[in-house]
Write a structure and sequence with these properties.
Blueprint (H helix, E strand, L loop, with lengths): L21 E8 L4 H16 L5 H22 L5 E8 L3 E8 L19 H12 L2 E6 L5 E8 L6
Antiparallel strand pairs: 1-2, 2-3, 3-5, 4-5
Helix pairs in contact: 1-2, 2-3
């Protein structure tokens, strides 16, 4: 069917979506053993779908996943025994989100070198910024939140 017949403007071409595009969602228990399991699931999904993402971007994305799942396990498990993981792949970017039912909106702490923890969200923001992506926290209709990060397939040229 020509584009005009489908309601497109005359002369417009229909752009087919890429075969690797899509959205996936799964849940995991809010326990420490979920951190490596979710990381491996995300890595395997990207490979299985044939997402053309640069190796260093995958490394950064998997570190982000580890930090977000760890934060949900450590800080939200009391009110959220399960977490939700969302992976969305667009034409030139990949977005991961980790949701829980805890209403607290996390904030990136400043680097305190005397502490051994507490810098996970700061690390997520740094990796995302270096890759030329974006990250944020959104509240869910059920009163929880999703912390997400979106990265382009390859880092911007500096």
């Amino acid at each position: 069917m020509p584009p005009e017949a489908a309601g497109a403007a005359p002369g417009a071409e229909r752009v087919a979506s890429c075969p690797y595009e899509g959205a996936w969602r799964f849940t995991a228990p809010a326990v420490d053993s979920s951190v490596p399991q979710v990381r491996h699931a995300v890595r395997d999904l990207l490979a299985r779908q044939g997402v053309p993402v640069a190796a260093e971007t995958v490394d950064g994305l998997l570190l982000i996943v580890s930090e977000l799942v760890t934060n949900a396990v450590r800080h939200a498990a009391v009110l959220s025994p399960q977490i939700t993981v969302e992976i969305t792949v667009g034409p030139q970017w990949v977005r991961v989100g980790v949701g829980d039912n805890h209403p607290y909106r996390p904030k990136a702490l400043e680097a305190d070198y005397a502490k051994t923890g507490g810098r996970g969200l700061l690390l997520v923001k740094a990796i995302t910024a270096e890759a030329g992506g974006a990250c944020d926290v959104e509240h869910t209709p059920a009163g929880g939140k999703v912390v997400w990060a979106a990265l382009p397939f390859s880092a911007p040229l500096l």
